[in-house]
Amino acid sequence: MDIKTASALRRLRLVSGPEAISFLLLLVCSVLKRTTDFNAVPVMGAVHGFLFVLYVLFWADAWNRAQWPLKTAAFYFLMSVLPTGGFFADRRLKREAEDAVIASRARNEGVVNA
Predict the structure, then answer these.
(1) Cβ-proximal residues to 28 (8 Å cutoff; 6+ apart), any chain
(2) Which of 46, 64, 85, 111 could link 79 by a cystine bridge, Cβ 3.0 to 4.6 Å?
(3) Start and end of every DUF3817 domain (predicted)?
(4) What's the rounded Cα separation, in Å, for the pair 36 and 97?
(5) Residue 97 maps to a domain
């Protein structure tokens, strides 16, 4: 992987955490709307919707650049629709991005995998 691929993975990683948090907050707001007079669902819905769209755009870019197999791409998409999935995606993406940077540096320095 090259630096652009690592950057795509990093962008996806950076949006996965806030997307997961906004999803959880939206669920809390939905419960509060039904149990109290507090209604923040329209605001949290818009915030979560914006972050979800960003996640999907960054996911598509990462899939394209990293040349993921369908199983890996489906896993990361599934993580976007589960309430805490963004946290799990973040952890795996961090590992993938670090591996991509290490591989790129090794290639630039002329180190060949044995």
Answers:
(1) none
(2) 85
(3) 9-95
(4) 43
(5) yes
R_g over Cα of the chain = 17
pLDDT per residue as tens digits for the range 62-102: 999 989 999 999 999 998 888 888 888 888 888 877 777 78
How open is the CA angle 70-57-78, to the nearest 5 degrees? 45
Query: What's the total number of domains in the chain?
Result: 1
CB count, 10 Å around CB of 15? 23
Query: DSSP readout, 20-74?
Result: HHHHHHHHHHHHHHHHSS---HHHHHHHHHHHHHHHHHHHHHHHHHHT--HHHHH
Q: What one-letter code names the amino acid at 35?
A: T
Helix/strand/coil percentages in the chain, nearest 5? 85, 0, 15
